[in-house]
Amino acid sequence: MISRMVRVAIALLWLILPLGVVLWQSTTASFEGALSDAFRALSGSAWLTFAVTLITSLIVLFGALGLARGKRLSATWASFIAVPHVAFAIGLLWLVSPSGWLVRIVDALLPMWQGPLQSSWLSSKSAFTLMVVLVLKELPFLILMTQANVQQMPVLRWQQQAQALGYSRRRFWWLIVVPALLRRIRLPLYIIAIYTVSVVDIPLLVGPNAPALLAQAVFELNWQFNSNTQGLVHWGSLLLVLVAIVTLVVLRVVEWILQRWLSSLAASGKRTPVAQTTGKRAGLPWFWAGLAVIIFISLLLQSVQQSWFYPSLWPQGWQWSRWLAEWPYIAPLLYNTWILAVLSATLAWLSAVALLEVQAQRQQHQLHVGWLAMLMVPQLVLVLGWQQTIGPDSGLIGLLWSHTVFCFPYAYLTLHGAYHAYPRRWLWQARSLGYGPWAAWFKILVPMLKRPLALTWAMAFSISVAQYLPTQWLAPVTHPTLTTEAVSIASGGDWRLGSVYALAQWASVWIVFMLALWGTRARN
Predict the structure, then answer these.
(1) Where would I find the H helices in 98-226?
(2) Which of helix, strand or coil describes residue 500?
(3) Partners of 317 in the β-ladder
(4) For residue 134, how many C-alpha atoms fall within 13 Å in the half-sphere facing its CB?
(5) CB atoms inside a 10 Å sphere around CB 232
(6) Which 3-state string (H, E, C) describes 22-86?
(7) What is the C-alpha to C-alpha distance for residues 223 and 347, in angstroms, rounded to an integer?
């Protein structure tokens, strides 16, 4: 009875109510204008969004499949995934701009270099720049999901049989493991695709403007507050859902074709000598760690530089007072960000733990896709329905609810594998020794799963910190955050001041992850 009440309460708060509000708003909203007119006005944005999403998703998919058979990423390297997209984009653009830090380093190492560059593919707002940022941020996530699924497959037994038949490691991976793996990583790939379809803050910083991505175009139309554009906003949101569905269908077709092709190659009987093998990609974690460190240092230098002329590697003048001057403005934003993140992460964490415990007691070990439904709907469509139902300034309670709605599925997805891999016999033995159910859970399970539990809370915290659209549409005046301010400043072209807010956002997430890793480290 209690377990059923827990499941109903979680579903009502974080699934039924959010989706119900959007469905109700969609059925009662007045769709002014014809769909054909809206399609003509937004067709360029729709096609661009579809192309960017499909290309990004396929690059991430094949990149993850090719790199996941290397060294398994540890929890420390996994924390780099939590770097906020906004801070990552701001730092990356300065790093690779025509007179950026990388160009200056090349100029210092190669005297014959004639710099700075006149132009750079990554120096301006373009679809290419947007895809680079999204690929670099989403690829580690899919690699982790892929490696987590590989751990649940009998790969060693398959490999022994394949090597006995003359398969090399590379051929074994692509022809035996990958076809079985594609179905398992389908959901994480779809989550990446849906995020790419509906992301707004990154296109505002690095995406094209003519035409803009569909989510960005609808976002900007919604700020015009006139009857002529509101019809376009509603039709545009439906068009966004259509683009998302078409993208998922195309990805499913690509998966089917790839499975059939690899299976036919495996059945062809061709063999590759076992000696033709490749080593593990041990440098993969170091690449992302190095990239994150370089971007962090570039943001730090940008935030304190007063003058930095080409081709100098270091600023000629420093302005340390910029941080002190901005602190009165950063402090309230930092307070709002941390209050929202701590509360929403805690609510999402408690809900995920309660749900997983109920499922474990019922011996339901499969990942239930229904609890991840909020990640399968474009965020703009959800937040637009909430805004038009509860108003543009819902206060702390409404904003906290919206953040928790998006934090919960990530907390459930992050903790699911470790929680269900825990051997429940330890709890049964504790009960046989006289421990009550609560005492056995707190004294036996929690200490053994302290790191996954802590990292799940940290991940939910980082998801809340990175939320831009819910904060911007539901409480932009009363509860602005570091993310909304960083996007506003950086999109205006002030990279030095934008770096200050990006660093404050990054540091908020990094501190929490380091505390989670340090506090749960193994003690001899």
Answers:
(1) 101-109, 127-150, 155-164, 169-172, 178-184, 186-198, 201-206, 214-222
(2) helix
(3) 307
(4) 33
(5) 22
(6) HHHHHHHCCCCCCHHHHHHHHHHHHHHHHHHHHHHHHHHHHHHHHHCCCCCCCHHHHHHHHCCHH
(7) 31
Measured distance CA(521)–CA(6) in Å, rounded: 32
Own/partner long-range contacts of 126-130 (Cβ < 8 Å, ≥24 apart):
126/206, 126/207, 126/208, 127/48, 127/51, 127/52, 127/207, 127/208, 129/93, 129/206, 129/207, 130/52, 130/202, 130/203, 130/206, 130/207, 130/208, 130/213
Using CA atoms, how far apart are residues 194 and 191, in angstroms rounded to an integer? 5
140: closest CA among 63, 210, 250?
A: 63
What does the block give as tokens for 284?
A: 């993969």
Tokens standing for residue 128: 């290419």
Cα 131 from Cα 57, distance rounded (Å): 10
Tens digit of pLDDT for each residue in 68-117? 886 666 655 656 677 888 999 888 887 877 777 777 887 777 776 666 66
Are the CB atoms for 360 and 420 separated by under 8 Å? yes
Q: Which two tokens stand for residue 418?
A: 């470790």
DSSP 314: S
Please give the backbone phi and psi of residue 481, each rounded to the nearest 5 degrees, phi first.
-125, 175
Calculate the dihedral angle through the C-alpha atoms of 123, 124, 127, 133, rounding to the nearest 10 degrees: 50
DSSP-assigned beta bridge partners for residue 318: 305
Per-residue model confidence as pLDDT tens digits over 447-503? 999 999 999 999 999 999 999 999 999 998 889 999 999 999 988 878 789 999 999
Cis peptide preceding 328, ω within 30 of 0: no
- The CA angle 92-97-102, to the nearest 5 degrees, is 75
How many separate helices (H) and strands (E) can be counted in the chain?
Answer: 25, 2
* Of 283, 259, 280, the residue nearest 69 (C-alpha): 280
Burial code of 49-68, b = ≥16 C-beta within 10 A, e = fewer?
A: bbebbbbbbebbbebbbebb
- Which of helix, strand or coil describes residue 306? strand
d(CA 372, CA 439): 30
- The β-bridge partners of 305 are 318
**Which tens digits make up the pLDDT trace of 133-177?**
999 999 988 988 898 888 888 988 998 888 888 888 888 999 999
Give me the torsion for CA of 82, 87, 89, 90, rounded to 10°.
-170
Q: Distance between CA 292 and CA 89 in Å, rounded?
A: 11
| Dihedral pair phi/psi, residue 11, rounded to 5° | -65, -40
